[in-house]
Structure prediction request, 269 residues.
Amino acid sequence: MRIEVDCPSGRWLLAAALAAVVACAPGRLPAAEQGEGKFGADWDSWQANTSVSDLASVQRGARNYTSYCLGCHSLKYERWSRLGADLRIPPELLEQDLLPPGAKATDYIESAMPPADAETWFGKAPPDLSLMVRARGKDYIYQLLTTFYVDPTRQTGANNLRLPAIAMPDVLSELGGLKAAVYRTESHPGPGGSSISEQVFDHFEQLVPGRMSLAEYDGFVRDTVNFLDYVSEPTQLERRSLGLWVVLFLLVFTWLAWLVKREYWKDIH
Ligand code: HEC
Prediction:
């Protein structure tokens, strides 16, 4: 007997599998990394491409956050103990690697910097970042952390494409290096046949390399954003794993219901 394989659902399965592979592919690197176009020219389409189900990435992000952000930004809606439990960090490791000296696991994640001092130093108090991903989206924060550039006219020596005139210093320059923003002049026809020219951002030029390569820095930022994504909705880790069980339950239940229906109707023709 020959079995004819003409099964449209097979094709659907293949398409779904391909889509899954594409969806799981690592995030797009900045254009310069791929050797195409000018570095930074397409910065406003850069995406974080992170997933909170990648626990190792969220854990690395927690470490990045405590080393480079907690000095100024609190996460006041989350306790250290909750973070440890969600990210499966054993209490000893939590204490040893993440908890600031003097803090208890049951404390909320507070910054050591008094808001009044921060305001004096930076002109603006660094906001709490607990809900920042919900408020602005993860691509926004990814772009914020990747588009700092040198600007001697600013008090901090740094400016940013995502948030021009930002009060935050370029705190990751040691890792990502220093970039210059290169502008081009564009002319538009103005009123009365005149022409108006304006300076438009064109691309970045790497001035000083950081301790990390561009690709490593990119991974560092993505992990940090991924961690902030988790913090902005800690239950999403649980919800995602629960969702899988719910779908499985529904499938099994549908099968049982079908068996019962078949049993009830088997004598009726
Ligand atoms: C030296 C202090 C300092 C450190 C360290 C710091 N920030 Fe900031 N951050 C600030 C200040 C000040 C602002 C307010 C900027 C403004 O509104 O102009 C800010 C604002 C922000 C914002 C909000 C931007 C907006 O649109 O309002 C985000 C997001 C942010 N920081 C992320 C981070 C992350 C992630 C880190 C760690 C990698 C970090 N910051 C480290 C001082 C700091």
In short: The beta strands are 75-79, 108-109, 148-150, 158-160, 178-189, 195-208. The chain has a mean pLDDT of 88.
